[in-house]
Amino acid sequence: MNTNQGKNISVTGAGGFIGKVLCKRLVEDRFNVTGLAMPGEKTESLEQMGVSIVRGDLTIPETARGICEGIDTVYHLAARVTYWGTRKEFYDTIICSDEKPVGRSIRQNAALRIYKLRCGHRSGSEAS
């Protein structure tokens, strides 16, 4: 018996290589999946597999506000993918601190669980 039906999952960086693979698996496992995509990012393949799309940029508070409402689990895969930029530009996307919109959203939903995946390393933590 599948107990995943009705559970809401959000994937930041859903349009990336790992994000697409994870979204596909979550949909196959009958989760309700919402993918966070950058404005203008192509999401047709995600939508065809049944992923709902929310557009926003984790570095712009106005566009990321409320992205975790009604979500049970977040897989935070979003990252700056380029060779150029300042250290701050890279960390602003990856770090989920209380000062960042995704961090605030996570902490406002006490039941939420977040997984951050970086360079082959996975860490999970209960939001507090």
Topology, element by element:
Layout: E1 8-12, H1 17-28, E2 32-37, H2 44-48, E3 52-55, H3 61-64, E4 73-76, H4 87-94, H5 101-108, E5 113-118, E6 121-126
Parallel strand pairs: 1-2, 1-4, 2-3, 4-5
Antiparallel strand pairs: 5-6
Condensed summary:
This protein has 128 residues and is an alpha/beta fold.
Description:
By secondary structure, the protein is of the alpha/beta class. It has one domain: Rossmann fold (3-Layer(aba) Sandwich). It is built from 5 helices and 6 strands, in the order E-H-E-H-E-H-E-H-H-E-E. It has helices at 17-28, 44-48, 61-64, 87-94, 101-108, and strands at 8-12, 32-37, 52-55, 73-76, 113-118, 121-126. Strand 5 and strand 6 (121-126) form a beta hairpin. Mean pLDDT is 75; it is low at 119-128.
Structural class: alpha/beta
| Residue fraction in strands | 15-25%
Looking at CATH, which topology would you report? Rossmann fold
Specify the biggest β-sheet: 6 strands, mixed
Q: What is the overall shape? A: globular
Helix content: 25-40%
N- and C-termini, Cα separation: 31 Å
CATH class: Alpha Beta
Strand order in space, largest sheet: 3-2-1-4-5-6
The assigned CATH architecture is 3-Layer(aba) Sandwich
In CATH, the homologous superfamily goes by the name NAD(P)-binding Rossmann-like Domain
Spatial extent as radius of gyration = 14 Å
Give the overall pLDDT as a whole number: 75
* H/I helix tally: 5
The helix-strand sequence is EHEHEHEHHEE
